[in-house]
Amino acid sequence: AQTVTQSQPEMSVQEAETVTLSCTYDTSESDYYLFWYKQPPSRQMILVIRQEAYKQQNATENRFSVNFQKAAKSFSLKISDSQLGDAAMYFCAYRSGGGSQGNLIFGKGTKLSVKP
Amino acid sequence: NAGVTQTPKFRILKIGQSMTLQCTQDMNHNYMYWYRQDPGMGLKLIYYSVGAGITDKGEVPNGYNVSRSTTEDFPLRLELAAPSQTSVYFCASSYSPESQPQHFGDGTRLSIL
Fold first, then answer.
1. Which of A45, A94, A108 to mutate to test the interface with B (most CBs of B within 10 A)?
2. Three-class DSSP category at A58
3. Which of A8, A102, B16, B53 has the most C-beta neighbours closer than 10 Å?
4. In DSSP terms, which residues pair with A106 in a beta bridge?
5. Looking at CA atoms only, how far is residue A16 from chain B in angstroms?
6. How far apart are the first and last CA of chain B?
């Protein structure tokens, strides 16, 4: 079974600085997708970024980028120029490819605080 | 552009009561999911559906039932509420099971007292 581990329960960053959130996963599959979701206090689940395992290039979305190390099964999220609105819980999630039912497997989350 | 709509947003139940959490989506997605999020934890899959009339169990299905009579609706039923079912429940949908991201509803906070 696949597992997702986020080893940092809480992180803090100064506004305008850069922070990296860690995520590791365990799988024997070769076809899969990885996601970072943001959950602000409003409880919404907001997709931040996604990475296809078959792509070597790291995904980027504006201030958000990932460091995808497939051999190490690592998928960290870098937030550049942190803003107060980035404060939230961040969840790393795994999704099987190749005809699976497509459900997400989540880590326990990292609570990010942004200091003004 | 409603997306995934869940009702109610909050509910308090007494032990042994029953209720249905409603979920509807207007994106014509075949795949729908119910997750629960316990405090300090990530989401765990309760049930999922790959299309109308087809449902299957996820990781934590005990105490719940689902149905999928239409593409749009995927209600979650709690038959005999127990304190262990106190949680936040999320419904999600996607067009395909793989590359497309899941769209989430805003969640239902359920307390069993």
1. A45
2. coil
3. A102
4. A93
5. 27
6. 36
- Tell me the C-alpha distance between A53 and A32, whole Å: 6
Give yes or no for A34 touching B (CB within 8 A).
no
Mean local confidence (pLDDT), B2-18: 94
Strand partners, B25: B4
Q: What is the dihedral of CA A62, A74, A109, A11, to 10 degrees?
A: -70
Report which of B16, B5, B33, B6 is spatially closest to residue B102, judged by C-alpha positions. Answer: B33
Tell me how far apart the alpha carbons of residues B11 and B14 are, in angstroms, rounded to a whole number: 10
The model's confidence at residue B99, banded by pLDDT at 50, 70 and 90, is low
Side chain identity, residue A75:
F
Any idea which residue has 């299309």 for tokens? B51
Q: What residue type is B65 in one-letter code?
A: N
pLDDT bracket for residue B96 (50, 70, 90): confident
